[in-house]
Amino acid sequence: MAATGEELTPQGYIQHHLTNLSVGEGFWTWHIDSLFFSVGLGVLFLWLFRSVGKKATTGVPGKLQCFVEMIVEFVDSSVKETFHGRNPVIAPLALTIFVWVFMMNFMDMVPVDWIPELAMAAGIPYMKVVPTTDLNITFSLALGVFVMIIYYSIKVKGVSGFVKELTLQPFNHKAMIPVNLLLESVTLIAKPISLGLRLFGNLYAGELIFILIALMYGANMALSALGVTLQLGWLIFHIMVITLQAFIFMMLTIVYLSMAHEDH
């Protein structure tokens, strides 16, 4: 797997699969592979759902239309049960987050060597294919949600209402303003951090386990057979993990935005 054609050590193999194709230096480093797959999957989601929507019929739906309708109804019911304000943006946002995050997570189902080896054959030394194993991607998503939380908090409550929420809760006394501001600021900032870290941590750990299992192939027949069994078992379990992480990210986004719409 090395770019020079040399055999990699186990440590080198793991490092190779966890290295992004990057350009730039320092703060301005761009992870080209993460951007390519995340943007590409986002475009695929928009094209697929738009094409299904344009071809939707009132009669007996096809399998793809039925599948899309099930997802839309599931997200719509989740929003209705969780979001207590009135905002036409929330349901489409929740649908986009759930499907897009799931699709990025689903790249973890692709065998770890397939795309990197194809990339190396094309002269590309590194290719990390799961965007949500990149902290930059998960924090970018979380930061977008954080901006919406601030925006709707100010829009619904006004600047003065938002400031009062930060300074007069949970202790409604002027003497406790510094304490309230500290507590509420930490709570507010913890929302995007927890969103980004939770998604990144679970997917990064899952990808690392796939890589460790892949190291068992080629050692001997017994380890290779064990590796096949372990990979199949982890693949089945990981389907639940990637779906659950997409659902949690969507639900927390809805909850946070519902709290931003509450005008006390």
Features:
264 residues; mainly alpha; 8 helices; 71% helix; disordered N terminus
Set down the secondary structure blueprint.
Blueprint (H helix, E strand, L loop, with lengths): L9 H8 L4 E2 L6 E2 H24 L7 H20 L7 H17 L7 H8 L13 H33 L9 H38 L6 H40 L4
Antiparallel strand pairs: 1-2
Structure commentary:
The chain is mainly α and 264 residues long. It has one domain (10-260). Helix content is 71%, strand content 2%. A two-stranded antiparallel sheet has the order 1-2. The termini are far apart. The model is unreliable at 1-5 (pLDDT under 50).
**Share of helix, binned:** over 70%
Distance, first to last CA:
59 Å
- Unreliable spans are 1-5
Main beta-sheet annotation: 2 strands, antiparallel
What's the structural domain tally? 1
Content-based structural category: mainly alpha
Give a nutshell description of this structure.
The protein is mostly helical and 264 residues long. It has helices at 10-17, 32-55, 63-82, 90-106, 114-121, 135-167, 177-214, 221-260, and strands at residues 22-23, 30-31. The longest helix is centred in the last third of the chain and has 40 residues, at 221-260.
